[in-house]
Amino acid sequence: MKVIIAGAGIGGLTAALSLQKIGVDVRLFESVSSIRSLGVGINVLPHATRELFALGLQAELDSFAIKTRAMKYFTRRGKEVISVPCGEYAGYKWPQYSLHRGEFQMMLLNAFKQRAGADKVICGHAISEFEQDEKGVKATFIDSKTKEVLSTETADLLIAADGLHSVVRKQLYPNEGRPVFSKIICYRGAVESTPYLDGESMIICGDNRLRLVSYPISETQRRQGNSHINWIASVPFESDTVGREDWAQQSRPDKLLELYRDWQFDWLNVPQLIQSAKEMFEFPVYDRDPLKRWTFDRVTLLGDAAHPLIPVSSSGAVHAIIDGRALAYALGSHDNPLDGLIAYEQDRLPKANRVVVASRNNGPDEVLEIVRRECDDADNIFDYVDRNVFQKVIDDFKELSGFGIDTLNNLDSYEI
Ligand SMILES: Cc1cc2nc3c(=O)[nH]c(=O)nc-3n(C[C@H](O)[C@H](O)[C@H](O)COP(=O)(O)OP(=O)(O)OC[C@H]3O[C@@H](n4cnc5c(N)ncnc54)[C@H](O)[C@@H]3O)c2cc1C
Questions:
Q1: Ligand 1 pocket, CB under 6 A
Q2: Cα(377) to centroid of ligand 1, in Å?
Q3: Domains along the chain with CATH numbers
Q4: Rounded to the nearest whole angstrom, what is the distance from the C-alpha of residue 39 to the centroid of ligand 1?
Q5: Helix (H, G, I), strand (E, B), or coil: what is residue 180?
Q6: Measured in angstroms, how far is the CA atom of residue 100 from the centroid of ligand 1?
Q7: 171 within 8 A of 129, measured Cβ to Cβ
Q8: Sign of the torsion formed by the C-alpha atoms of 153, 157, 161 and 166
Q9: Are strands 2-6 and 41-44 parallel, antiparallel or unpaired?
Q10: Which residue lies with its CA nearest to atom 51 of ligand 1?
Q11: How many CB atoms lie within 10 A of CB 218?
């Protein structure tokens, strides 16, 4: 079986590694001319970590990624609402990792090149269109800057892992229009500093009026007693549209410093954290309405191309990774590849769509909206809301997203 994957991001690379492992001849086409270590922090939750371990990547992950100890929720005045143990600290068989997205992408890329051969990754080739018939699928690749046609490639299957602006999705759904703007802008930066709290935990502070998420992303720095701290400031933006979402759009801290001026907790000085970032990026938050169908005969969607997620629940990379593994599992379990693609969709589409909807409704961060509604700025939150209410929000989201502790520990992975 010959498979073309369009897009060498987190989802495309995981799919490529998973397909290569079961003996599929897979080629990856990526639009950028060379893949560089871009982005800031992401989290990989245990239901995705276990799939990466099955691909033999545990030792490499351990070498550079932080094993996240806890996710700690705080009010905008820095008072703790709930601390949720993560990964092995919570009783999972697998850790949760906080890591640098670019380092992670390079790790996946190098692993794939070593296993499949460097010639299987073709950069500078953006998919522009495809056609298919009963014999196979034909994909056209162009130079994304000049639009010059570079090649036409044939295969049995085409997997579209070409991200939020998926060209393949646009061909399948020509009238879908632009992504849906969530009226939030995320500002992101990273700082090398002394650790806050235990140096291994993620914090989520504030609420939908103003939020700060932060976590350390370098195990190397942690071992040296330092911390490479990733932060994301989410600020409401009252307009229906804003510039095109672009992960590399640079920004300046001035507008944030005023907004976060009072966020000086005894355990973290937020304005100082923001000001210390050497580079800052701004990213308007978009997702898309869930689709009813990803698979069209020999073509299917994967990762953000299938189900872009707003970043409230650390789910974007997680579900792209799981898609990649589920795809290989489905293809390996069916004699007819077209049946495999249908099985992949039947397994993954309802699960991913549930997470899209739950993320729009704040996901686990709903705990902070409860505080805002029930006892905004109160000195003792627990006089107003029972701790179990917060725990239930967290537990319900874990089950919905596929990583309830007992559920996951007792579930088979996508290993064939
Ligand atoms: C440069 C970059 C930086 C990012 N930084 C962060 C971050 O800091 N934090 C965070 O939470 N998320 C970040 N993301 C998004 C995050 O990686 C994804 O939401 C998530 O991992 C899902 O992965 P994916 O593979 O579906 O999409 P992505 O990781 O976005 O990968 C999509 C890939 O497809 C390629 N592509 C696009 N169009 C075409 C085409 N026509 N033909 C071929 N290839 C194409 C892109 O260049 C990209 O490599 C970033 C994405 C990118 C591309």
A1: 6-12, 29-32, 38-40, 42, 101, 126-127, 161-163, 167, 188, 247, 303-304, 311, 316-317, 320
A2: 38
A3: 2-38+101-178+294-361 (3.50.50.60)
A4: 9
A5: strand
A6: 13
A7: yes
A8: positive
A9: unpaired
A10: 247
A11: 23
DSSP state, 90?
Answer: G
Evaluate if residue 286 carries a pLDDT over 90.
no
Tokens representing 18 are: 């998973």
pLDDT at 391 > cutoff 90: yes
Residue 395 CA neighbour count, 13 Å, CB half: 9
Strand partners, 27: 4
Question: pLDDT digit string (tens) for 193-226?
Answer: 999 999 999 999 999 999 999 999 999 999 999 9
245 falls in which pLDDT band (50, 70, 90)? low
State which amino acid sits at residue 338: L
- Give the closest residue (by CA) to ligand 1 atom 3: 39
Region 50-70 average pLDDT: 98
Write out the DSSP string of 5-39. Answer: EE--SHHHHHHHHHHHHTT-EEEEE-SSSS-----
DSSP of 118-145: GGGEE-S-EEEEEEE-SS-EEEEEE-TT
* Nearest protein CA to atom 19 of ligand 1, as residue: 316
Report whether 226 contacts 235 (CB < 8 A): no
| For residues 140-144, average pLDDT | 97
Whole-number Å distance between alpha carbons of 412 and 416: 10
Average pLDDT, the chain: 94
Distance between CA atoms of residues 161 and 179, nearest Å: 16
- Proportion of the chain above pLDDT 90, given as a percent: 87
Q: Ligand 1: distance of its center to the CA of 96 in Å?
A: 21
The pLDDT of residue 247: 64
What's the CA-to-centroid distance between 9 and ligand 1, angstroms? 5
**pLDDT tens by residue, 308-348:** 998 887 899 999 999 999 999 999 999 999 999 999 999 99
Say yes or no to pLDDT of 171 above 80.
yes
Distance, in Å, from the CA atom of 213 to the CA atom of 231, rounded to the nearest integer, reads: 6
Predicted confidence at residue 244, as pLDDT, reads: 63
- How is residue 218 annotated by DSSP? -
389 SS3 class: helix
Q: Is the pLDDT of residue 7 over 80?
A: yes
Measured distance CA(241)–CA(249) in Å, rounded = 16
Q: How confident is the model at residue 242 (pLDDT cuts 50, 70, 90)?
A: low
Q: SS3 for 55?
A: coil
